[in-house]
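tool_call predict_complex ligand=cytidine-5'-monophosphate
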Amino acid sequence: MRPSGNPVFCALDTTDTARAVTLARSLKGTVGGLKVGMEFFNANGPDGFRQVAEAGLPVFLDLKLHDIPNTVAGGIRAVLPLKPAIVNVHAAGGPAMMRAAADAAAEAGDSRPLVIAVTVLTSMDEGDLAATGISGTPRDQVLRLASLARESGLDGVVCSAHEIEPLRAELGPDFKLIVPGIRPAGADVADQKRIMTPEQACALGADILVIGRPITGAEDPRRAAEDISASLAPALG
Ligand code: C5P
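tool_result ok
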């Protein structure tokens, strides 16, 4: 899904509704969508979400649900009236949970959100995985969980830019790859470690680029978003 052909979803990582709404309004027409996560939603709830969505852009509700199937299905059902464009769950919750999430989302019919899996958090390395009882590399685990997500009826995964190529090869052209950790050339890297430029990630086959601070932290966020989108024109053909 690339609403309006623009793959950039701007992450609004704030608890401040007024700031989020101002950004949402000013970015309309320059990005394909917005993302709000648990920081914003826990502070402002459905009403805050509605205010952001009123700007008219698709919104990815990034709550990373992880619970028993019945509870995750209920959590998804509860947000369907908000008409999020994308919701997500942890693939580690297993196939029954992911199937329940997909089935709950399908109840929204034509306005159903994409249901995306989080595989291995990029903050975890091989040692962290071993500590949780999982042997093998993060990359092996990402591929295993992504395959499971597809078999369980989910639409795609969140992944690092460096995982785009193996995931595309393994899971085919229709599985959505949503990619954070993106930095325009010359931008402040901040706490992101394994970054890629928007052009590189799109050329490799990312469907959606989640970009936060390079836009929201810019002196002129609209201008920053326009520059990023313009830089993508060649990669998008
Ligand atoms: O500001 P920045 O561009 O780093 O924001 C990236 C967004 O993507 C944040 O909302 C962050 O929580 C999210 N994210 C990430 N890395 C992941 C998964 C999500 O940076 N592996």
